[in-house]
Amino acid sequence: MTVFPSLFLGFLGLGGPELLIILAVLILLFGAKKLPELAKGLGKSVSEFKKASKEAEAEDAKETTEADLKAQLAAAKAELAAAKAKNSGNN
């Protein structure tokens, strides 16, 4: 299935001249002094995003573990109650 192949291939075909043009446009828009600040801010935001996604994955794993432990505890309580009922019925 092909959905707008030129749209996706356009981003893959960036070469040297295209990157130089993009860099020149960025320098014209923001100025040479602002580009390092923008790159630094972009790097920080990417690292914060990665950190937040790792924390979210760890939290999901913790919640899953807690849910599993609660289910095991409930099963153990049910087995204990069944054993007590069986023992009281035999006496």
Task: Write structural notes for this entry.
The protein is mainly α and 91 residues long. The protein has one domain (17-90). Helix content is 88%, strand content 0%. It has three helices and no strands. The chain is rod-shaped and about 90 Å long. The mean pLDDT is 81.
Give a quick rundown of the structure.
The chain has three helices and no strands.
**How far is the N terminus from the C terminus?**
72 Å
Q: How would a textbook summarize the main sheet? A: none
What value does the Rg take, in angstroms?
Answer: 30 Å
Kindly state the number of beta strands: 0
- Outline: rod-shaped
Instruction: Tell me the domain tally.
Output: 1
Class of secondary structure makeup:
mainly alpha
Considering DSSP H and I runs of 4 or more, what fraction of the residues is helical? over 70%
Provide the succession of SSEs.
HHH
Strand content: under 5%
Overall residue-averaged pLDDT value: 81
Would you identify the regions where 5 or more consecutive residues have pLDDT less than 50?
none
The helix count comes to: 3
Chart the SSEs and their pairings.
Elements (H helix, E strand, L loop, with lengths): L4 H8 L3 H15 L3 H57 L1
Notable traits:
rod-shaped, mainly alpha, 91 residues, 3 helices
